[in-house]
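[Automated response] Your request has been received and processed.

Submitted sequence:
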Amino acid sequence: MNIHQILNKPENLVILAGAGCSMDPPSCLPNANDVKKLLFDRVCLKTEVKTLVTHKNMRFEQMIETFSGLMDPEMDLLDYYGKSEDPNFEHYFLASLAKRGATILTTNFDSLIEQAILHLNVPKDQLRLVITKSDYQDYQSLLESKEDDICAVVKLHGSLKNICTEQDTKLSLKATIKSLVKFKKGDNLFTLEPYKKTPIETTLIGKTLVTIGYSGNDDFDIIPTLKTINTLKRLVWINYRPDITEDKLIEIGGGNDNQESKASKVLSFLTDFKKQNPKTKTYLFNANVSDFCEKQIDMEISKKKTEKHIEFADWLEEYVKKPSLFEKMLLSGFYYSDMGEYEQSIQILTKLHNLARKQNNREWIRTAMTHLSKLYHQVEYYKDERILLAELFASNLEENNYIGIASNLTQIGSIFYYLMQYKYAINYFEHALDIYGVLKSKIDLAVPEAECLLGLGAVYKDMGDNEAALNTFKCALDIFEYKGIIEGIGPTVHNIGVIYDELDDLENALDYYKKALMIGIESGNNILVLNSYIDMGALFMQKQDIKSARKSFLKAKEIADKYNLPREMIIVDANLRTLDKPELIKELLKQKQSIRKEETKDSFNKEKILRDLGFEDETIEILNKRIREYNLEEINAVESGDYTWIYICLAALASMHGESMQTYPFLLKALKVYDIADNTIDVLEYVEDICNKYRQYKMVNVAIIAHKKALNILTNHEYPNKKLKDTLEEKLNKLLENYRKH
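Generated structure:
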């Protein structure tokens, strides 16, 4: 089979088109990296541009969303993509396929494909652009009616405008960007917004999917998406290779793929896809895509930029205001935080804070402190966070900023919650709620009030005061449902299910778990789906409904494996093994009843740890024996390299004991694991968590030891991570300085 035999049946084709299609002249739209470089050059600190542009976690949509939040609330930056009106050969190639029956799916913001279709004399009333929610619903109805003459372009990421109806559809674009940012890496771009799922799945059944305009380097979208598709007849990846003089169709698994570079990311993915879908014919088509598309189109098109073409750099200069130094510092700090580089973000925002103080700029002092306090909370620097919040509180009090005061009180309550000082946490949350109660008649503060209620409910939940937790969560749920905030409804419904579970009201618990599960599926919240399946599995285990428990845990395992979540993998695997041991399940129920009879403040946490860690022999031994014994030599599993399992057990046990003296032996056990694993790079994944625990409990000397050992591993490992080493060295020096002071 050759590529022309595949393309000559367009009615069987679905094309997935990426941004690479719009780069050739006369379109000349910049790729994502070019946009990032130009935007960061304009709005960020010059010293940070190179790192931000090249960082593997800096995705295009995140860049747009963060910039929008600070300087461009209407996302006017994206209007640039609506200015291009010059389709290239690739657009006309796709348009010719669409005219003859192929369906086009595209993640592109521009409208060049649909412009090319109209240029080929397809009437506007025969071109169906699928952009908004109602468009997707109408499109699904057309698919169900099995109409054959649909010329459809489905805009997966939305579009600025429907050029057939002249409808402004920019809201669709903004909504999808927010979804992409929210769920980030590894999510399926077809299901980020639930209403898109069914029509897209229907479109793909039994079809040949051809991807074009993707490099394979965008792990965020295309590869995770294709991994979820199992209904295709064929998959063809058109791979841009400018060095290719002879077009080449390679069948994956057909024997002729051995000549290709095994280092090719695209080939690696296609090989995995073929293994997962052995009945789907899978091909790699290497070609100079520009030349290939030109050969398929019998028309003259200019290969030069037109006079009306606007360069993105010129667009930025005219339409994006030049930020102040304060704004550049804040944006740079935000972008590092987006990428998970919290220490670098803290450094930049600290400099912003100091500069604002030097210039006595009260607004920027408050802005810097607000965001610094949130970063400190993220990395568990609670002491630093409390100092900043105290100053913020005083500033807000002086200016009678009661909304700010309530926000500060809520954040302080959260600190005490994470420190397990529940009495103080309740006090601060209740003070915040009092303020919201007074102000809500004048201003809409429903969302922060609901978030405060969630914090208070979490405190009651961890204290084992289930009735208070239930009432508090239900109050929060009422607010979220009234406001229609799905991000708040799902987790709150799940929390209510957990409380009913603790109250032994298993029917109500199951009902709420199922509701949370459906909300998670419909909203694309995979973590909520995962947790719902895990808790449903545990509930079915309590009811000794082994078949339903296994089904739930297997669903959870599928998600945990897909998103590489080690802790959840361990929990699910432990519970699946337990299902094969009826006597162990009986032991589980005895343990649970025994703990509940204790009626101590720790009983709730003990029971939660039992449930979370599973109930296999090793866990029972840890929970029954090591809670009473602190013999470091008992940690033998490390010798088999099972660092993850041991560390999670120790962390769970440590959190169970709060800030009591019993915490220290467990932390020392964690360090013992680290000692045994010396010179093993795997353990570095847990260094930050271990050291944060030591700092939290003021064990500075032990934290220093841990940092030194981390540096030793980094130095001796054959692939040293210089950035991590520099970060650890900086933290070590800070710890040493603090240690000398005290």
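Summary generated for your ticket: The first strand starts at residue 13 and ends at 17. The beta strands are 13-17, 103-106, 127-130, 151-155, 161-162, 167-168, 208-212, 234-240, 248-251, 281-287.
If you did not submit this request, please reply to this message.
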